[in-house]
Specification:
This protein has 213 residues and is α/β, with parallel strands linked by helices. 46% of the residues lie in helices and 19% in strands. The strands form two sheets. It has a seven-stranded mixed β-sheet, sandwiched between helices. The longest helix has 19 residues.
């Protein structure tokens, strides 16, 4: 596959393609034209072609896209052709909710450990995974080859915990704390702010209202 810089906007659209293609695959659909995929996903056919052209096209003239092939190829681009082991730091409401979500496993993200500084929570389990004290963090990461740390702790703690993580071989942080983390380049950080999505929703509510008025 061609090695070129793909825009984050395109990368951001790939999981949605993957979701739809996965559903088509489950329904036994073997091929789909860009027009049909466009109608299904409510994305223009030219957008789909442009997006897929970033990866060499995937299409075959007069045939459409091979659903299984496209699903595997996009999965591979997204790095989903392998497994990632993750831990959750912060066994509160959000950490437990994420730990309880089994679909991450289906995508190859394996929940291996949970940590919290609160001694009352240590020893509890979430889906069979025990909450451990923070003292065990570095040892656990190294002994279990953990790839990803999910941060579901308050922003006041997130910076110092991230500094500790920088001293380990962790490869990425999925950061739910509302603070930007300054980490070595080798550690990938994905910040998640559910409120951003909510604000987009409120924008669309008001835009729809304005259009109707
Ligand atoms: P929570 O209070 O239920 O849980 C936080 C947990 O973190 C507690 O169990 C606490 O003992 C633990 N903790 C605090 N400092 C720690 C440290 N230094 N090391 C290890 N554990 C530590 O809070 P909740 O509702 O689970 O939210 C967690 C954080 O995520 C909050 O800061 C909240 O603002 C944020 N959040 C972010 C969202 C997003 O979309 N990015 C959505 C919801 C919450």
């Amino acid at each position: 596959m061609e090695e070129k810089e793909i825009s984050q906007a395109v990368i951001g659209r790939l999981p949605r393609y993957l979701r739809y293609l996965g559903e088509l695959k489950d329904e036994g659909v073997e091929r789909i034209s860009s027009q049909d995929l466009s109608a299904l996903m409510k994305v223009t056919a030219s957008q789909i072609r442009q997006d897929f052209n970033n990866f060499g096209g995937f299409g075959q003239q007069g045939y459409g896209y091979n659903v299984g092939y496209l699903y595997d190829a996009i999965g591979k681009i997204l790095g989903l052709d392998r497994q990632y082991k993750f831990i959750i730091i912060g066994a509160g409401n959000l950490g437990r909710a994420l730990g309880n979500y089994i679909n991450f496993e289906k995508r190859g993200f394996i929940f291996r450990g949970m940590f919290d500084q609160n001694p009352d929570l240590v020893g509890n389990s979430v889906r069979g995974v025990r909450v451990m004290p923070m003292e065990e963090l570095e040892r656990f990461i190294s002994e279990n080859d953990i790839d990803i740390a999910v941060l579901t702790i308050p922003k006041t703690s997130a910076v110092s915990v991230a500094e500790r993580l920088a001293g380990t071989d962790i490869r990425a942080i999925w950061n739910f704390a509302h603070v930007d983390l300054n980490l070595p380049e080798r550690i990938q950080v994905e910040n998640v702010h559910l409120s951003d999505s909510l604000m987009k929703l409120s924008y669309n509510i008001s835009r729809y209202q304005q259009e109707k008025e």
